[in-house]
Amino acid sequence: MAKIGIFYGSTEGNTERVVTQIQAQLGGEAEAVLHNVSSASADDMQPYSYLILACPTWEIGQLQEDWDTFIDELADVDYTGKKVTYVGLGDADGYPDTFLDAMGLIHDKIKDKGASFVGAWPTDGYNFEASKGVVDGKFLGLGIDEDNQKDLTAGRIEKWVAQLKTEFA
Asked: CA-CA distances (angstroms) from residue 13 to 95, 139, 166?
């Protein structure tokens, strides 16, 4: 079985496209399995040593609708020995005060549950004012702005996955 579980919610398809690219960079389905949170449960998360939690930020700092329903499942997962990271999608120009807040909202639910957190990503090159997804000057995971910086997405994924491979080792 794959070691990496990628759990995502995607309304318009951007997050699904991004996590599919991440899955391919990680070595495909043999290494990483995609789970849409619209049909997932805490039991689906349990077998994985490594979790990537991917959620776009909607409206003014809100979780994507499937994540809004799924987030309570996170309390039922045993994170002991697991390494967790995040992927956040957002619109920095349209919502500069809540850019990638969803990462922070999810992190707040599990930060004290025994997981190790990896995959922090620099905020350099992003134009935003505030984010709950930033801790100690870095994003909690990979930040993607498909609305304004789509041309940077592939390069960011490639660099972040290379970083993850080291941090997951």
From this structure: 19, 22, 28
CA 133 to mean position of chain CA atoms: 10
pLDDT-based confidence at residue 169 (cuts at 50, 70, 90): confident
**Where are the domains positioned within the chain?**
4-168
The architecture (CATH level 2) of 4-168 comes to: 3-Layer(aba) Sandwich (3.40)
Alpha carbons 76 and 127: distance in angstroms, whole number:
36
Integer Cα distance of 53 and 39 in angstroms? 15
Tokens of 128: 């935003």
Residues paired with 7 in a beta bridge: 35, 53
Scored b (16 or more CB within 10 A) or e, 125-164 reads: ebebeebbbbeeeebbbbbbbbeebeeebeebbeebbebb
Q: Rounded CA gap, 134 and 121, in Å?
A: 9
Q: Is the pLDDT of residue 1 over 90?
A: no
Q: How far apart are CA 97 and CA 73, in angstroms?
A: 28
Q: In what order do the strands lie in the sheet with 138-139?
A: 121-122, 138-139, 134-135
